[in-house]
Fold this protein.
Amino acid sequence: MQKLDFSINIGHVISELCSEQIVAIFDQGFKLPGTTFNYTSITPILFASKSKYDNLVKTEEYASILNKINASEVYEEANLAFLTTQLRNMPGRDLIINDKVSRLYSFHKSLVDLKKITTELLVDKKFSGDLDSLMDTGYLIFQIAIEEDGLEPSQYLKIITALDELIKTIEKINGQSDEDKNSARIIMLDSGSDTNLGIKSQVETAKSLFLIFKEIWDFITNHRFYKTKQQNEAFMESLTIRQKIVEMQKNGVLTEDEAKEYSFMIKTRTDTLIGLKVLPKSIMNTNHLVENKYMLKEYRGLKLLES
């Protein structure tokens, strides 16, 4: 699992299990360990946490984390029933000597601490927030779906080249000045079961790049069994960036040859990247009726954009 994915998944587990709320209540009581404190407020949070836990263990990436930290012993029904009898008005020093209560606290405290360590030591803080909001600062993270045999160096080169050419085309369309045209760069390559590829560019470029993939991928997921040339050509003409190119040509900003070149680059480089199983990470992680990784695997047989 990539460092970035691990950090994101740990953050989601903590949020779903309400770990920070549970730890905060314990810590508040432990500030004055000899003074009676009302720990009963943990009980409803704990049962909400149990409901979320039951959902998390159904998903492979979260189940693998929870299994490694023996979360099941905390969320066993018998254990939760026992905890409800212990979490009451009492001094913290008397409560924490109970092994099961101590285990509950240490479990959630360890998760919170693990997230902090992961963020500070393994992942650049700029990537620890929401993936889509990163575009507001010019960052866009792609995920490359890797099969068992991995990728050859030539395939990574194709991916980086296609991304570079696509970004440069978008920069031209957006009218980026010559001195800024080299601002786009790779700032993260994080390998694991899949590979994360981070791009830093101008904000407008990052958002345009993401929108191209979003519009095309939405079309692919909704029309993968309909490969008519007319339908695909009409779709390509409807892309937001294609409409911008047409408008720029009408206004004399682009020549006819430039408009054709840019449209061709958008179509072919995007097709190359999707064919190499590359998508923005937030799109890759979106759930569909058909898993996105399976869709990428069968994409070469569909060839929607080139039908």
In short: The first helix runs from residue 3 to 17.
